[in-house]
Amino acid sequence: MNPLRRIGFAYNPTIDAAVDLRERATGWAAMRGLDHWAAAAADLDTLRRELPGTDVLIVLGGDGTFLRAARAVADVDVPLLGINVGKVGFLSKVEAGDLVRTLDQLQAGAFSLEHRMALEGRILRGGRPDAPERHVALNDVVIARGSLARVVRLDVSIDASHLATFIADGLIVASPTGSTGYSFSAGGPILDPHARNLVVTPIAGYLTTIRSVVVEASVVIRCRVTDAHEALVSIDGREDVPIAVGDVVEVRSIERPIRLVQPTGSLPFWDLVRKKVELLPS
Asked: Under DSSP, is residue 166 helix (H, G, I), strand (E, B) or coil?
């Protein structure tokens, strides 16, 4: 990455601590004469407008804030760094108290870049491939029942091979980064974040012997809704799209990775996992 000239801050305006952190961060940039801007992480249009020419996007918030910002950098390739002001913060390398020290590290070039695989989810209405609805996720694409407590029936295939017909609350297709999230809660494994794999995990599957499978990144996971009273597709848990019987959801990996900033001295991934898991409610 080139010397730091322009820096962006994406924050959660509903968290007072994130707003305070934004003020500290923009003050830091102003004192050093750096070109900078700030926007709410949910304001996708502003993020996409400001990101070109930006050297790094600092995300101030929890994992939800980070995932919102990741949608924007999937289209405009800018490295991301999360400053955690949420509860667990699996995606954040830095805690709020280390903000200034971390920004000083960035300016000094004391960091590396990690490449994380992202996902593309396509919704094919009625199974027709002519006009798919495309969505990008860093963590996972979830096909699930709606608000009513009724299971859905899903025919799931991996490329041309039929995997199973699940009667369940839903199905999670997760990236390695997302393997620490919903998929893990549903019984899936945690993958190394640099792996090139997809994790397919049913949610509360009824009378199924398949709990979770790991497949290579080159395959396409295809899920057809064959029976449901109400169903939806959830993208990174941030965006819910209603779907109907006969609709197909295809999930595949995206060739270009999302780049994450790792400040020098950051906690290694497996140490971070251990530390964060200890914070989860038992």
From this structure: strand
